[in-house]
Design goal:
Number of domains: 1
Number of strands: 5
Shape: globular
Order of helices and strands: EEEEHHHE
Number of helices: 3
Strand order of the largest sheet: 2-3-4
Helix content: 40-55%
Mean pLDDT: 96
Largest sheet: 3 strands, antiparallel
Length: 86
């Protein structure tokens, strides 16, 4: 899976934003924390849910059991707005 090109990612020190372009069917702004931003960064290239969980487990002080539900929820929300190519 990969983030569709119709969406742009913007990260600040504390927040991350997913911004649709005119080519996206979704109109709105999605705002999240640094972990959300890292998920979006990982989705700029072809990746899978397990790879995202593994990368976050290495980068943040949390177990895969704790990270996996949040990744699943984030990916579900991104699917819901049509932001993923699968």
């Amino acid at each position: 899976m990969k983030l569709k090109e119709a969406f742009l990612v913007h990260n600040t020190d504390r927040e991350s934003f997913l911004v649709p372009t005119g080519a996206a069917e979704f109109s709105g702004l999605v705002r999240g924390n640094a972990v959300f931003g890292r998920i979006l960064e990982l989705l700029t290239s072809e990746t899978g849910e397990e790879e995202i969980v593994a990368a976050l487990t290495e980068e943040f002080d949390a177990s895969a059991d704790r990270i996996a539900p949040d990744v699943k929820k984030t990916l579900s929300a991104l699917r819901g707005i049509g932001a993923l190519d699968e």
